[in-house]
Write a structure and sequence with these properties.
Order of helices and strands: EEHHEEEHEHEEHEE
Shape: globular
Largest sheet: 8 strands, mixed
GO molecular function: protein N-terminal-serine acetyltransferase activity; protein-N-terminal-alanine acetyltransferase activity
Number of helices: 5
CATH topology: Aminopeptidase
CATH superfamily: Gcn5-related N-acetyltransferase (GNAT)
Pfam families: Acetyltransf_3
Radius of gyration: 17 Å
Keywords: Transferase
Number of strands: 10
Number of domains: 1
Helix content: 25-40%
CATH class: Alpha Beta
Structural class: alpha+beta
Protein name: Protein N-acetyltransferase, RimJ/RimL family
Distance between the termini: 39 Å
CATH architecture: 3-Layer(aba) Sandwich
Length: 225
């Protein structure tokens, strides 16, 4: 039986994992974010904002993002180094329809293709689909952003289509690729991601022994690298 609507709106709370913690984004994270962003210009290629020439320009964006009541943002703190190296959000929240999106993801070069980035996204997926009970989780990105498309597929999102020239990013009209996971698909996706994140899946130097992949039936699983 589906939950009665409206679904709860996401709260700005701490979401703790084993490798990272998601903290409500605030000006307190600015020092770490400036250190990370100033070394990661290319990581902003597919976002409306960045790269940032000054700490003040980054501060303005952090102030804007952290003050949005309709779109809660989280900073990603590494549990080992205690440094903050990125942010992400839940956006386009439709409590009446049980639909929600994970988006505005920015990870510095230090986080990309890492166990930390995988867990950060997984924590928000779990919050949206398990804790809040939403029925549809969306991932959208520039159709030119091969890394983001690959990440969506890796997490088990299903491609739905492309909106042509849907948004303007840094002076260019950009096609948007849409992906989603439905509530009934989530338990199998969750188990596969949890299996990948287990400590025993990593060598002593932190290299994953398996990879997340999806078969023709859209089942997500861990395969040997």
């Amino acid at each position: 039986m589906r939950q009665r609507t409206p679904y709860p709106f996401p709260e700005k709370i701490v979401l703790a994992g084993e490798f990272v913690a998601l903290e409500p984004l605030s000006a307190e994270h600015l020092d770490d974010l400036w250190a990370a962003a100033s070394r990661s210009d290319r990581s902003f290629d597919h976002l409306r904002y960045g790269p940032f020439e000054t700490r003040a320009s980054l501060s303005q964006v952090v102030q804007d993002l952290s003050s949005r009541d309709h779109q809660p943002f989280w900073a990603v703190r590494d549990s080992g180094t205690r440094e903050v190296n990125g942010w992400l959000s839940l956006c386009d929240v439709y409590p009446q329809d049980g639909a929600i999106e994970i988006g505005s993801i920015w990870f510095s070069a230090l986080m990309q293709r890492s166990r930390a980035s995988t867990e950060a996204i997984f924590l928000l997926m779990r919050y949206a689909l398990d804790a809040l009970g939403y029925q549809r989780l969306v991932w959208r990105c520039s159709a030119r952003n091969a890394a983001s498309i690959g990440a969506a597929q890796r997490f088990g999102f299903v491609h739905e289509g492309v909106w042509r020239q849907a948004i303007l990013i840094k002076g260019h009209q950009v096609d948007l690729a849409w992906f989603s996971i439905l509530a009934e698909e989530w338990p199998a996706r969750r188990r596969a991601i949890e299996a990948w994140l287990r400590k025993e899946n990593f060598s002593p130097d932190g290299v994953a022994l398996t990879r997340l992949s999806r078969d023709a039936k859209s089942e997500l699983r861990c395969d040997t690298v």
